[in-house]
Design goal:
The chain folds into 2 domains: 132 residues, Glycosyltransferase, CATH 1.50.10; 109 residues, Sandwich (Maltose phosphorylase, domain 3), CATH 2.60.420. 31% of the residues are buried. The chain has 8 helices and 13 strands. By secondary structure, it is of the alpha+beta class.
């Protein structure tokens, strides 16, 4: 059924060069998120998607339907730099625009209040609304790098998106298995990552590093660290399998 829907979607809405009809950020993000585009057109669609963001001065233009997928899709398509640009944007419309004007919760509308127009209609203008607040998923899974690798966090994936405008991040999640936490910091040309994995679980930790020989855990070569097993090294990352516990990784940037 999915393949039939995909074929119909492409026939009706997708051009041969990867453009999605209407050309909105929402149209591109949903097509990419739900695998509706042929593999060969996904990079081109991402280019058009990013071009629209650039044309809007580095601003988002999605609403309830697309906003929750915006940052994760950009990261998954290799454009974490653009995801961070949107996350850290502080002019209208953006998350930090409202923060700059005193918000302590996330609003229902990007223009719930503006200096020019004041408040929106009270009939649809909540100042504590989850939909646009769904960026919180990216703060935990992207910036903090905490993701389930199997149901209930029995197996955990730790893969923070490093840098791109931030020099540090501190995140924790109280899962059914216990607290999962990450702290990363970029300082003096070095990256440090502290990872806490709860009892009776295992985790895959993916760390940006040119080679495993440059990566240490608690000041020891990572290949000699207790509870750590090297899974893969290449393409600028080192992938480790770790047991429960707290680990202190460090590598040159």
């Amino acid at each position: 059924m999915f393949e039939e829907i995909k074929a119909a979607f492409n026939k009706r809405y997708v051009s041969s060069d990867g453009r999605v009809a209407s050309g909105t950020q929402c149209a591109y993000v949903l097509a990419l998120k739900f695998g509706l585009l042929p593999a060969e057109l996904r990079p081109k669609a991402t280019e058009y998607f990013v071009s629209d963001i650039k044309a809007k001065g580095g601003h988002l233009s999605t609403g309830f339907v697309g906003v929750s997928h915006l940052l994760p899709v950009l990261s998954n398509m290799g454009r974490a730099d653009v995801a961070y640009q949107l996350l850290l944007q502080d002019t209208f419309p953006s998350w930090l625009f409202s923060v700059k004007h005193g918000a302590t919760t996330i609003w229902e509308r990007w223009d719930g209040w503006t200096p020019e127009k004041g408040f929106q209609s009270p009939s649809m203008n909540s100042f504590n609304h989850y939909s646009l607040g769904s960026c919180g998923e990216y703060l935990f899974e992207g910036v903090g790098g905490i993701r389930p690798a199997s149901p209930g966090f029995k197996n955990i994936l730790i893969q923070p998106v490093i840098g791109n405008g931030l020099t540090w991040a501190n995140a924790s999640y109280d899962s059914i298995r216990g607290r999962i936490a990450t702290v990363w910091k970029c300082e003096n040309g070095r990256l440090s990552i502290e990872v806490t994995i709860p009892a009776n679980t295992t985790a895959t930790v993916v760390i940006p590093a040119k080679d495993q020989s440059e990566l240490t855990e608690s000041a020891k070569p990572v290949t000699r660290a207790e509870g750590v097993k090297l899974k893969h090294s290449g393409n600028g990352v080192v992938q480790l399998e770790v047991e429960s516990g707290t680990y202190h990784f460090e590598s040159p940037m």
